[in-house]
Write a structure and sequence with these properties.
Helices cover about 30% and strands about 20% of the residues. The chain is an alpha/beta fold and about 500 residues long. It folds into 2 domains: about 15-55 and about 215-295 and about 410-460, FAD/NAD(P)-binding domain; about 55-210 and about 300-400, Alpha-Beta Complex (Polyamine Oxidase, Chain A, domain 2). The protein is globular, with a radius of gyration of 24 Å. The protein binds flavin-adenine dinucleotide (FAD). Flavin-adenine dinucleotide binds near residues 44, 53, 73 and 408. Its cofactor is FAD.
């Protein structure tokens, strides 16, 4: 009953549901199936751990010579929850697994430029004033079905124009790019602001940084352990998916090295970057309505550059240090101290963050060059200090990772809610889940958590297991929009609208 019989059926697994990816979305999809008493599933991941983009590494060393654990990927629980209001599920799990975490205090901030310390914090207040106005306007666009614009336009009309003032550019980067990994020019105004509201106004405006030495993914492993046993044969790590053949009857997943999985349904949780880079071959090719949504949504890159020194030469009580480069916006702008109270105290670790084109630039160059650039910036910020050589230095290259091709998604101008729904929608019995598929929480861990769970519940409803609330928003196949119209009918391309010539005229007969 599947689209294609594998060459060697003995090398094939047979299961009801193949879950592709053991990140947050894959694990919550499996958990939802398990909760609906569907135990016949397989979870596949090319990495050798559970957690995907919740990824950590060893770094530097403490006084006893043991290394620290630092997070290369997700680091914050963003938007915790307020009394009486809903709670971010990642916060609930953070408490459940007693993750070590500390409130990130964005007011614990000192500002710098190329000449050292320079207090331009009043520009932060000016930004906040304009942002409040912009928020209202974005809300009006959403409620009145007005045409979306980019966030640059939204900000400009709210009175925020950083122009060539590099202090203002640094403030804007801190307030926008740092979260979204894209500039306001490249971000949807309507959905950028709505997404921020849904996390920071619905849950709370608190961000807690996780510094747990087990690694942030302890919560993902913890949840997986509730339905997977030790060495569970349903978890296939270090297993690479090369192609996915789908139909209305089922799915066949080909694995590197020749094996395959035949399933009634499959859930692809691969990142938007993986889908855009065509690492996995889909048979038949994904329909145009699906492919357009995949290509339009944006995959950003966010890079943390870790440095450990033999002393904390920056203010030991401050969490954040904002640097305005005189020439380049987004040039090593945010420095975050892990040595600050409540974090990895006296670790002498600080990390810089860059995104987008600066990430791509440093990914292309050797570590030594990036280290030299970091030290030059620190020398500018702290002119009275002879900056020592770091004793440890490390950064990931997210946009080059074959299993991620970037860090997390962002909503571009020109993407409507319907078009985004096409990113979510199943194609026959092939389902999609993951961070980018969350209309409300794209980019965040909780987005991945909700999307995985929803797809798991929908598949469970189709398999007929223990789902009582049929017909609600989370059962059955997903809505999709095969045709999406613009707002201009063909007849409107006329002289009255400044379009007297046919768009399809061809006068060159050669
Ligand atoms: C640098 C960075 C910082 C971030 N900061 C935060 C933060 O502070 N707070 C927050 O809430 N979110 C943050 N995020 C976002 C968060 O990490 C993601 O939203 C979330 O982890 C995505 O989960 P997912 O299950 O959708 O995808 P993934 O975690 O990417 O899971 C997909 C899995 O599929 C696997 N896979 C891919 N291709 C194949 C293949 N061909 N075969 C087999 N397996 C494959 C991958 O190995 C991966 O494990 C950050 C992300 C990054 C990278």
């Amino acid at each position: 009953a599947v689209v294609r019989q594998p060459a060697n059926t003995t090398s094939c697994y047979r299961t009801k549901v193949a879950i592709l990816g053991a990140g947050v979305a894959g694990i919550t999809a499996a958990q939802a199936l398990s909760n609906a008493s569907i135990t016949d599933f397989l979870v596949v991941d090319r990495n050798n751990y559970i957690g995907g983009r919740v990824a950590h590494t060893s770094f530097g060393s403490d006084q006893n010579g043991s290394s620290y654990t630092v997070e290369l990927g997700a680091n914050w629980i963003q938007g915790l929850g307020s009394p009486g209001g809903p709670e971010n599920p990642i916060w609930t799990l953070g408490k459940k697994y007693k993750l070590d975490n500390t409130f990130s205090d964005y007011d614990s901030l000192l500002t710098y430029d190329e000449a050292g310390a320079n207090d331009y914090s009043e520009i932060l207040d000016a930004f906040d004033t304009a942002y409040d106005i912009a928020e209202d306007e974005a809300g009006r666009i959403l409620t009145e079905n007005l045409q979306d614009t980019n966030t640059r336009v939204g900000f400009s009309l709210a009175g925020w124009k950083p122009r060539k003032d590099m202090h203002a550019q640094a403030v804007e980067w801190w307030s926008w790019d740092w979260e979204t990994s894209y500039s306001p020019d490249d971000s949807s105004f309507e959905f950028g602001i709505a997404g921020s509201n849904l996390t920071f106004n619905q849950f709370s405006d608190e961000n807690n940084l996780v510094w747990d030495q087990r690694g942030f993914n302890a919560f993902v492993i913890g949840e997986a352990s509730e339905f997977l046993t030790q060495n569970d044969s349903r978890l296939l790590l270090e297993t690479v998916v090369t192609s996915i053949s789908y139909s209305q009857q089922g799915v066949v997943v080909d694995l590197e090295g020749g094996g395959c999985i035949e399933a009634d349904h499959a859930v692809c949780t691969f990142s938007l970057g993986v889908l855009q880079n065509e690492v996995v071959d889909f048979q038949p090719p994904l329909p145009r309505w699906k492919a357009e949504a995949i290509e339009l949504f944006q995959m950003g890159t966010y890079t943390k550059i870790f440095l450990q020194f033999n002393e904390t030469f920056w203010d030991p009580d401050t969490q954040f240090f904002l640097y305005a480069d005189p020439d380049t916006r987004g040039y090593y702008p945010v420095w975050q101290s892990l040595s600050a109270p409540g974090f990895l105290e006296s670790s002498n670790i600080i990390f810089a963050t860059v995104v987008g084109s600066e990430s791509y630039r440093i990914e292309q160059q050797p570590d030594e060059q990036t280290k030299a650039e970091c030290l030059a910036v620190l020398s500018a910020m702290f002119p009275d200090i002879d900056i020592p050589d770091p004793i440890a230095f490390l950064y990931p290259r997210w946009s080059q990772e074959e299993w991620a091709f970037g860090s997390y998604s962002n909503w571009p101008p020109g993407m409507t809610l319907e078009k985004h729904q096409n990113l979510r929608a199943n194609v026959d019995r092939l389902w999609f889940a993951g961070e980018a598929n969350s209309a409300e929480y794209f980019g965040f861990l909780h987005g991945a958590w909700f999307e995985g769970q929803e797809v798991g519940m929908r598949i469970a409803s189709l398999l007929g297991n223990n789902i009582t609330s049929r017909g609600n928003a989370t059962s059955g196949y997903m809505t999709r929009y095969e045709v999406l119209h613009g707002t201009t009918d063909l007849w409107e391309y006329n002289a009255a609208n400044g379009w007297p010539t046919s768009s399809f005229v061809v006068n060159d007969a050669s």
